[in-house]
Amino acid sequence: MIELIVSQGRVADREPRMIEGAARIARALEDRYGLTARFIGEPAPPADDDWTVSLPQAGETLNGLREAVTESIGNGSRTVMISNTCSASLATLPVVAREHPDAVVLYIDGHGDFNTPETTGTGYLGGMVLAGACGLWDSGHGSGLRPAQAVLVGARDIDEAEGELIARHGVRVIPPAQTTAENILAAVGDRPVWVHIDWDVLEPGHVPADYTVPDGLLPTQIRAIFEAIPPAQLRGVELAEFNAPLDDELSERAVETILGMVAPAFENAVAFENVPAAKAG
Questions:
Q1: Crossing angle for the helix pair 219-228 and 181-188, to the nearest 10 degrees
Q2: Is residue 280 predicted with pLDDT exceeding 60?
Q3: Which terminus of the chain, N or C, has less C-beta within 10 A?
Q4: What are phi and psi of 203, to 5 degrees?
Q5: Residues 207 and 118: beta-carbon distance below 8 Å
Q6: Per-residue pLDDT tens for 254-264?
Q7: d(CA 93, CA 207)
Q8: Do the Cβ atoms of 79 and 235 come closer than 8 Å?
Q9: Distance (Å, whole) CA 18 – CA 210
């Protein structure tokens, strides 16, 4: 069973169409797969503020997301969270670490998101997500993810001090040119897998996202990742940072691109549920 959770409260959004982007993807997934999404949080305007302001503002939404993901994992579902920003994962990755202590987190992002309050040059909460989940700073929403469990996939825009932290704590990095099904399978082995995607990991022009950088992944590479992960190992998926265009046609085209990339995560879930129990393990 797939449970669809959607973040609709501001979680450090700096652009006005991120919340709408999450809602559009959720509605498309509902229509295509007959799902009913659970919406968390109330929309609020974007702001170019520091993490010390945006983090407490997002408290209610983050608490709601943590409870929803905890419940979903407890139900034995494949959890799919659609979020406006990567910052929402401050609430969810600690839950993954607690409930799936041996899981590999494929953090598919153009950036490392491994800054701390001491290293951040922008003060943006989204750039500190993975470091917070790994306990390098206290977000107030938990930690527990071991850096060795995290694999940065497609990361290429990493600050110098951030890169030093990544190397010091043993976070593996698979750059875009090395993002192949074979390397992904080698990274996850036979362990449970949780996939987090920020659409800025893509080569610009495929899906509108905030903070895009060149030389990214192609949609075919994202789909290949989902095709490669054995269905029994995929525990959850997080999709973040779709900056929905005002032009409906462009927005619909981008949503179709997204659904095409992630389709195996939905289709193999249905196929796996139909396998007799004796063979499913």
A1: 40
A2: no
A3: C
A4: -55, 130
A5: no
A6: 999 999 999 99
A7: 24
A8: yes
A9: 9
279, pLDDT greater than 90: no
Tokens of 227: 């095709």
Q: Tell me the pLDDT tens digit for each residue of 119-157.
A: 999 999 999 999 999 999 999 999 999 999 999 999 999
Helices 59-74 and 89-99, axial angle in degrees (round to 10): 30
Determine the Cα–Cα distance for residues 256 and 118; give it in Å rounded to an integer.
Answer: 39
Written in H, E and C, the secondary structure of the chain is CEEEEEECCCCCCCCCCHHHHHHHHHHHHHHHHCCCCEEECCCCCCCCCCHHHHHHHCHHHHHHHHHHHHHHHHCCCEEEEEECCHHHHHHHHHHHHHHCCCCEEEEECCECCCCCCCCCCCCCHHHHHHHHHCCCCCCCCCCCCCHHHEEEECCCECCHHHHHHHHHCCCEEECHHHCCHHHHHHHHCCCCEEEEEEHHHECCCCCCCCCCCCCCECHHHHHHHHHHCCHHHEEEEEEECCCCCCCHHHHHHHHHHHHHHHHHHHHHHHHHHCCCHHHHC
